[in-house]
Amino acid sequence: MDDKTGKTDVSIVIPVYNEEENVQPLHESLSNVLGPLGRSFEIVFVDDGSSDRTMEELQVLADRDRAVRVVSLRRNFGQTAAFAAGFDHARGDVIITMDGDNQNDPADIPMMLEKSKEFDLVSGWRKDRKDGMFLRKIPSRIANWLISTVTGVKLHDYGCSLKAYRHDVIKNLNLYGEMHRFIPALASWYGISVTEVPVRHHPRTRGESKYGISRTIRVILDLITVKFLQSFSTKPIQFFGPVGLLSGLSGFFILSYLTLLKVLTGASIGGRPLLLLGVLLIIVGVQVIGMGLLAEMLVRIYHESQRKPIYYVKKVIGAMGDRDQ
Ligand code: UDP
Ligand code: MG
């Protein structure tokens, strides 16, 4: 790292939660790979409120190696929050994320760095994944297919933590929930270039996995949010409007039909289920359109109060000279 500017070429961001046996070997293998690269680097460990000796182990590394920085969170906030904390503290032009359990292999980093000269985001693909078949690999395959289809950003392995980002991809991004795996989809909104490279993967030999099958459900819920943000975040009425109109109009036609029936034939319509359905559809229609209008106001408040544009400029050329954004 350059001490004067605080700038560095590469930041490695690693969230760790109860990985006491893993941090030291990981630091060693990382140093072996990064040292010979001839580029300045920092290793940012984020201790996500570990309750074992992880923090003590990290302290030893930070005392010994000036490239190591440790961000210690007050409690266990989850992997997404840990990544977000790491991004906020990372100063590199390229930011590489990986797991702290030695399942990702630092040996892939030079190749990813090379690729990141060309692409804004380089995503690892654990082609030969070393995890359990039924509880991990099959649910993950279905989830990856679903996320690719719904978001339109085609990746084989959204869940792989080993990724390389250009600094500006990350700095514009706010993460919530379990969103770290959706960064490629979220960032696609900015118009970034994404590529995928096969990477090595090793079985976990120390410590325990922090997740079970329940993650699949959380991923699907987050997917709904991401799809909505990706498609309608600046025009919510375009999502709510058609649903509301369809419901309201159906209700209108049903009630018109019943009214005509009553007026023309004098038939009794008071006890008909269709009457209830018509009323329900109109109420739902009005509510949904109202929600769309409220969302439109929220969009304006969100963007205008924070001066967030609804577009991203790559560069401006012309009389004032070239200017990268
Ligand atoms: N992790 C974290 N906070 C959590 C859960 C996990 O920082 O609440 C870290 C964990 O220490 C590891 C990485 O996230 O470095 C991936 O976790 P894990 O290996 O358990 O996930 P898996 O590889 O089994 O999907
Ligand atoms: Mg793991």
Number of domains: 2
CATH topology of the largest domain: Spore Coat Polysaccharide Biosynthesis Protein SpsA, Chain A
Note the main sheet: 7 strands, mixed
Give the second-level CATH assignment, the architecture of the largest domain.
Alpha-Beta Complex
Q: Can you identify the CATH superfamily of the largest domain?
A: Spore Coat Polysaccharide Biosynthesis Protein SpsA, Chain A
Strand content: 5-15%
Task: Report the principal-axis shape.
Answer: elongated
Q: Tell me roughly what share of residues is in helical segments.
A: 40-55%
Category by helix and strand content: alpha/beta
Name the quaternary structure. Answer: single chain
Query: N-to-C SSE series?
Result: EHEHEHEHEHEHHEHHHEE
Bound molecules: uridine-5'-diphosphate, magnesium ion
